[in-house]
Design a protein that fits this description.
Distance between the termini of chain A: 49 Å
Number of helices of chain A: 19
Shape of chain B: globular
Radius of gyration of chain B: 16 Å
Radius of gyration of chain A: 24 Å
Helix content of chain A: 40-55%
Strand order of the largest sheet of chain B: 2-1-5-3-4
Helix content of chain B: 25-40%
Oligomer: heterodimer
Shape of chain A: globular
Strand order of the largest sheet of chain A: 1-2
Strand content of chain B: 15-25%
Largest interface: A-B, 28 and 33 residues
């Protein structure tokens, strides 16, 4: 007998196929190729426009996906596990043969706004055109100017490993019909200019939801659980909505500190892919723009509603930070003293930096231990002078050491249930290479 | 091992560019490339504290810190703590006759300096907690604690006069 879940899956499949049939015809009818042009001369773009494009390209963290670890900037070739197979990022340098050198502004704009390549084929939604569609004309033009003035990189695109029939690009038309709403960002009049600016940046070029919103079985961001958090690259991209497990609310100021400096004293430090987002991306944005993004997410996460509980949560946290609790009976407590307390310690009489004893760390209050394990194994940092820093303890601590530390911290720093999947979770993360960024 | 790449950082106030594999421990660069041997190799797994240096204002175990992670930062070793070896913690070390064999002391001193930045007037419990990761095989812990108390009083006195 078919299980209901499979039955439901089959029904969804049938509905999808019906939609698809219609969409395929529509798709072929609607996408023509756009004539190649001779690559525009770099000097033909005003300097100010190129500079504006550079800031946007940083905010979009384009290089993180479109540059392979050993490759030249924007030459593409990074493979991404989509859940359906590997999708490789493409060469977006202005090389006329292997990059986008012959793409007109119209072709570039169509790719950004509709996810359609110069030749009329659909791009995979691993390229977040679902967000870039919100960009205004000026920003699209600036990005075009930026990319067309980069050094051309000769690097043919890799073949994706997504199997037939999912690799049939026409099918993307059906996907778009189901999951893609085209259109520029529209101001919400009831909100401030700064809020709208933050929303424009976050929902558009910065495409925060691409990592922080769960995806449905078709790989689309699920509308119903916007910013509810999602696993990414062995890390948990934490919820940015009211379900964020941080003991203290993320206020605009906290978010600003985190996005600007890579660290909020009352919450934690940017690590994993987010460290690169802060260092290589958001660092290029102006202060008012970073404040705008912080304002936007402080609103989305409902921090104002939680403000009243802050003092109580802080007081509770202060009672939980004794580093030596259990040291006579619990090996994890001793290990903490040897390996962690030199930095992760607060004197009992001082409330200066509660984060130091990890009482407020979201990595420890999360139901998913991944970020705790990642941080212990791979450390935090690479942001240069003044940024947060911790070396990785992968060569120092065994999996069972990390388990002991995890159990100790979860027990003493929170009153949440213990993590019950630790050995598996640690073993799953251990063989991963140190993140390249 | 990744292929050699160039890393630029400040070591004791001087710019240093090294071309080594990015996963080379900072400790090897300090000792073998820069030739500063005051920083010691102890356990190699960040558990004994002998290799402690400062990255900015943080005390860090250099044996498990890959060189790629220090790009653009200020690294200070025991040699760079004071031009004439007269940092208050170093003076206190002499006054308390803290070391016995001396192998752990540069790491101990670097950790103690960072401790006093964070906690200018530490209680014994604070000293014990923060210094717990710096091992001394000669068991000079009592004198090390005493030296830290002397240094703390000295630094506070200087600050009060200023």
């Amino acid at each position: 007998m078919l299980k209901p879940r499979i039955l439901r899956g089959a029904l969804i499949g049938i509905v999808a196929l019906v939609l698809l049939a219609g969409a395929v015809a529509w798709a072929w009818a609607s996408n023509s190729s756009i004539a190649p042009i001779s690559p525009p001369l770099p000097a033909s773009f005003p300097e100010a426009q190129v500079n504006a494009g550079a800031v946007l390209a940083a905010a979009g963290n384009c290089a993180a996906c479109h540059t392979s670890p050993d490759g030249l900037p924007y030459g593409g070739g990074n493979g991404f596990e989509t859940g359906f197979g590997l999708a490789y990022s493409t060469n977006i340098s202005p090389d006329p043969e292997t990059g986008i050198g012959t793409w007109s502004l119209a072709a570039f704009a169509r790719a950004m706004r509709q996810g359609v390549a110069q030749d009329g084929t659909h791009l995979l939604p691993a390229f977040p055109y679902t967000h870039f569609t919100k960009l205004n004309d000026g920003d699209i033009q600036a990005l075009y100017a930026f990319f067309m003035t980069r050094p051309p990189v000769v690097a043919p695109d890799h073949r994706n490993t997504i199997p037939f029939p999912l690799n049939v690009r026409g099918l993307q038309a059906a996907w778009k019909l189901l999951f893609f709403r085209r259109g520029e960002y529209r101001q919400i009049e009831a909100r401030s200019d700064s809020w709208n600016r933050g929303a424009y940046l976050a929902e558009g070029i910065a495409h925060c939801a691409a990592c922080h919103t769960p995806r449905n079985r078709f790989g689309a961001e699920s509308k119903g659980s916007s910013y509810a958090g999602e696993r990414f690259d062995g890390w948990l991209a934490p919820p940015l909505n009211a379900t964020n497990p941080s003991p203290l609310p993320w206020t605009q100021r906290d978010l600003y500190d985190y996005l600007r400096k890579g660290e909020s004293l009352l919450h934690g430090a940017a690590a994993g892919a987010m460290a690169g987002v802060v260092k290589d991306g958001l660092s290029r944005l102006s202060d008012p723009d970073v404040q705008a993004i912080a304002l936007y997410f402080a609103d989305i996460n409902g921090s104002a509603d939680r403000a009243e509980g802050t003092a109580g949560s802080l007081n509770l946290a202060m009672t939980r930070r004794l580093v030596d609790s259990g040291k006579d009976t619990e090996p994890g407590a001793n290990l903490y003293l040897s390996a962690c307390a030199a930095c992760h310690y607060d004197p009992p009489q001082s409330a200066r930096s509660v984060q130091a004893s990890l009482t407020l760390s979201t990595s420890i209050t999360s139901a998913d231990p991944s970020n705790f394990i990642q941080t212990v194994l791979h450390g935090v940092g690479g942001m240069g002078e003044g940024g947060p820093f911790m070396p990785g303890y992968a060569p120092a601590l065994t999996n069972s050491d990390i388990e002991l530390l995890a159990r100790y911290l979860r027990r003493t720093r929170t009153d949440l249930p213990e993590w019950n999947n630790l050995p598996t979770a640690i073993a799953a993360i251990r063989p991963a290479q140190r993140p390249s960024r | 091992m990744s292929s050699p790449s160039r890393t630029l950082f400040m070591l004791n106030g001087r710019e240093l560019a090294v071309t080594v594999s990015g996963d080379t421990p900072l400790l090897w660069v300090i000792r073998d490339v820069a030739g500063l041997t005051g920083t010691k190799f102890g356990c190699g797994i960040g558990m004994c504290g002998a290799c402690t240096v400062h990255i900015g204002q943080r005390a860090v175990r250099s044996c498990i810190t890959p060189i790629s992670a220090v790009a653009g930062t200020q690294v200070t070793t025991i040699e760079g703590l004071s031009p004439d070896g007269q940092h208050p913690v170093q003076k206190a070390w002499v006054q308390a006759q803290a070391p016995q064999c001396g192998y752990c002391q540069s790491g101990q001193i670097m950790q103690a300096v960072a401790l006093l930045w964070q906690i200018p007037d530490p209680a014994d419990a604070d000293i014990d907690a923060v210094m717990n990761g710096n091992l001394c095989r000669c068991m000079a812990y009592v004198r090390i604690r005493q030296a830290i108390r002397i240094a703390a009083a000295d630094i506070r006195q200087v600050a009060a006069r200023a």
